[in-house]
From TrEMBL:
Protein name per Swiss-Prot or TrEMBL: Glyoxylate reductase/hydroxypyruvate reductase
Pfam families on file: 2-Hacid_dh, 2-Hacid_dh_C
Aminoacyl-tRNA synthetase recorded as keyword: no
Domain D-isomer specific 2-hydroxyacid dehydrogenase NAD-binding: 69-252
Domain of life from the UniProt record: Eukaryota
Similarity remark: Belongs to the D-isomer specific 2-hydroxyacid dehydrogenase family.
Gene3D superfamilies in alphabetical order: NAD(P)-binding Rossmann-like Domain
Ranges for domain D-isomer specific 2-hydroxyacid dehydrogenase catalytic: 10-276
MF annotations from Gene Ontology: glyoxylate reductase (NADPH) activity; hydroxypyruvate reductase [NAD(P)H] activity; NAD binding
Length: 280
């Protein structure tokens, strides 16, 4: 049966594509990935077998952009803590303990500075959403956007990432995991950020090891993460014990519409590759 296999469809990075598998599938032509990031794959190895790679760049954009803004807002206004506090309020009142609403004060989003690291199609649309909240937007990218594109969303380009980090109130990491973008935010970068800053990560999990220390020591105020190095995080992981961290289980593409469109785009990519056409 292995000789009949021409395509592989990966859903949520569960399958391992290694040399042994590729050698066992002599007629494999294309691998379709259910998402944008392909850091879990050895692309050079795949290419060495003459196999094409395709990802769902269009299908996941809207749901990922919305997740990024949702995390920013939820962290800024401490929505999860506020929800929990309703239960704590009743417990405190019934036990005669003091309950203080000031413990749940959040920070303003309107007028705040948002720094976006990685302004491709997803990062650009996040800037568009942030503009609706009247945020001041800075961005760092390998290449600067066209002037009319910057003006359309009111962004300012920072050629050096340090300039962005020193000014922002919120930093959102929106770069796919590649050898060039591996570990975009390290200890040095976090120490450049304001102690009142919040880090939002919707793209890669390589940040979390340095992040724990920064959050514990007050280097930055808070973090909101949809992506972690281990998914799901172990129940005893330090990040899950910190009050200034909001974590979600990679929800960025988990909507009914996104799931359907991802599959639809994957099928289009697979059919194009099988028919010798450019992958859309």
């Amino acid at each position: 049966i292995s000789k009949k296999v021409q395509v592989i469809y990966l859903w949520r990075h569960k399958s391992v594509i290694d040399q042994e598998l590729l050698q066992s599938l002599p007629n494999l032509k294309v691998i379709a990935n259910s998402g944008v990031g392909m850091g879990h794959l050895d692309l050079k190895l795949v290419a060495s077998f003459g196999v094409k790679m395709a990802n769902a760049t269009h299908a996941v954009s809207s749901s990922t952009e919305n997740t990024g803004m949702a995390l920013l807002l939820a962290s800024a206004r401490r929505l999860v803590e506020g929800n929990t506090s309703i239960l704590l309020y009743h417990v405190a009142i019934s036990s005669g303990m003091e309950y203080c609403e000031a413990h749940f004060l959040g920070v303003e989003v309107t007028g705040a500075i948002l720094g976006i690291i990685g302004v491709g199609s997803i990062g650009y649309k996040i800037a568009l959403r942030a503009k609706a909240f009247e945020m001041n937007i800075l961005y760092h990218n390998r290449t600067q956007r066209k002037e009319q594109e910057e003006q359309a969303v009111g962004t300012t380009y920072c050629k050096k990432i340090d300039n962005l980090l020193q000014q922002e109130d919120f930093v959102m990491v929106v770069v796919s995991l590649t050898p060039q973008t591996h570990k975009p935010i390290g200890k040095r970068e976090m120490e450049l950020m304001k102690p009142t800053a919040t880090l939002i990560n919707i793209s890669q999990g390589t940040i979390q090891n340095r992040l724990v220390t920064a959050l514990q020591t007050g280097v930055i105020r808070a973090a909101a993460l949809d992506v972690t190095h281990l998914e799901p995080l172990p129940t005893d992981h330090t990040l899950l014990k910190l009050k200034n961290v909001l974590t979600t289980p990679h929800l960025s593409i988990k909507t009914e519409k996104a799931t359907y469109v991802i599959t639809e785009e994957a099928v289009e990519n697979l059919l194009a590759a099988l028919n010798g056409l450019p992958i859309p």
